[in-house]
């Protein structure tokens, strides 16, 4: 692991089974004229439920760190308690790591305390795995066979492997989406696969596979054919609808039309015979790439804006929100921030939750945040990840830090 300049912090599971000192309050006044009154720790008289309530107002990092104060606090922090479901809402963290064939380890950024923590992420074996997060859980798909699926809580390190997903290696493109019900903690995994029809360049078979944690099984509610469009690796579940970004093959699209389009699939109705392209929504402008995200059940698109004469070359970054099947521009990245990345790639990483968006260039460890409600751009504290050679690549994804949810 790389050396960090910021504070080192061992995560939640590191305290499990570790030795914890009994807490014994002592008086700070040892003078001979001490009046004999007994010094009593507030902790000693505070009932468990009130102590839990007090701790629940702290950031997650502070709660976890408090587990090393004494044996009682350790037991409270690590117990599966309902109190943690009533915690003050936490801003999503960002896990950053380098792209390599080595075991994945990196650093997690906490925007509330503006600190980076050394972080070994559970389950991820290689840096090219696909990820999708929701309500404290992260879903991961092995990008080699695209069948192996994991669900984990990065903070508690709880994880499980799901049944292998249908399709897999035979798919040309696979996209992963994940949605957790915040009340019941039930979750849905969606995988959208796209395969080129043999000998037909402009026809692509499109299939949706769904996994429900309630049943523990996969179903395939939709299979269709896209004409002139192919799938990719970008999709998200928002308010019960699967949104999927598709790409023009250049056969049936004129030069004046955009190269990206958004298709929708209702996960509640689950129609098995429908024309997805008949309801497709064009992207707001020519994009070099697009990143979809669910911000409090609002569908948000972060896209690289292409130059007018060369749409494949990025000139800026825009943020849009979908309202009644129409895009409304939220913001455009100010030029000083765009330049702050140095050489910005046409394709980049971006994700978020709640009201916070993260943007990162694959060629730099610099991390920019955007608070969508306040429309505020801000650099993170400098990342402890350093660039060791010119072609080194970086990536990452966000997740909500929660203690109350299990896979």
UniProtKB/TrEMBL annotation:
The keyword Mitochondrion does not apply. InterPro entries: Beta-prop_At3g26010-like, F-box-like_dom_sf, F-box_dom, FBXO31/39, Gal_Oxase/kelch_b-propeller, Kelch-typ_b-propeller. The keyword Repressor does not apply. Pfam families: b-prop_At3g26010-like, F-box-like. It comes from the Eukaryota. PROSITE patterns: FBOX. Keywords: Ubl conjugation pathway. Residues 46-87 form the F-box domain. This is F-box domain-containing protein.
């Amino acid at each position: 692991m790389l050396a960090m300049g910021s504070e080192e912090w061992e995560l939640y599971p590191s305290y499990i089974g570790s030795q914890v000192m009994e807490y014994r309050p002592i008086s700070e006044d040892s003078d001979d004229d001490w009046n004999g009154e007994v010094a009593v720790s507030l902790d000693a008289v505070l009932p468990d439920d009130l102590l839990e309530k007090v701790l629940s107002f702290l950031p997650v990092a502070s709660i976890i760190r408090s587990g090393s104060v004494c044996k009682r606090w350790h037991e409270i922090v690590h117990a599966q308690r309902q109190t943690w479901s009533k915690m003050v809402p936490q801003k999503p963290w960002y896990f950053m790591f380098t792209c390599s064939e080595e075991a994945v380890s990196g650093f997690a950024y906490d925007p509330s305390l503006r600190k980076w923590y050394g972080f070994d992420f559970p389950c991820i074996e290689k840096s090219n795995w696909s990820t999708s997060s929701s309500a404290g859980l992260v879903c991961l798909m092995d990008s080699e066979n695209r069948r192996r699926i994991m669900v984990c809580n990065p903070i508690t390190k709880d994880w499980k492997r799901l049944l292998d997903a249908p399709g897999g290696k035979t798919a040309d493109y696979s996209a992963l989406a994940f949605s957790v019900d915040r009340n019941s903690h039930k979750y849905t995994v969606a995988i959208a696969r796209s395969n080129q029809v043999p000998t037909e360049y402009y026809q692509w078979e499109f299939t949706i596979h769904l996994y429900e944690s309630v049943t523990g099984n996969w179903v395939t509610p939709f299979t269709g054919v896209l004409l002139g469009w192919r799938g990719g690796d970008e999709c998200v579940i928002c308010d019960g609808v699967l949104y999927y970004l598709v790409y023009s093959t250049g056969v049936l699209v004129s030069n004046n039309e955009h190269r990206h389009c958004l298709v929708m699939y209702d996960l509640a109705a689950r129609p098995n015979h429908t024309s997805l392209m008949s309801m497709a929504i064009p992207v707001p402008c020519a994009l070099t790439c697009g990143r979809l995200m669910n911000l409090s059940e609002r569908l948000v698109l972060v896209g690289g804006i292409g130059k007018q004469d060369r749409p494949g070359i990025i000139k800026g970054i825009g943020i849009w929100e979908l309202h009644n099947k129409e895009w409304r521009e939220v913001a455009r990245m100010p030029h000083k921030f765009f330049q702050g990345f140095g050489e910005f790639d046409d394709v980049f990483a971006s994700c978020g939750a709640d009201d916070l968006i993260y943007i990162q260039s694959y060629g730099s460890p610099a991390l920019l945040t955007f608070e969508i409600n306040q429309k505020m751009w801000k650099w993170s504290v400098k990342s402890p990840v350093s660039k060791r050679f010119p072609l080194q690549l970086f990536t990452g994804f966000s997740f909500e830090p929660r203690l109350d949810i299990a896979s």
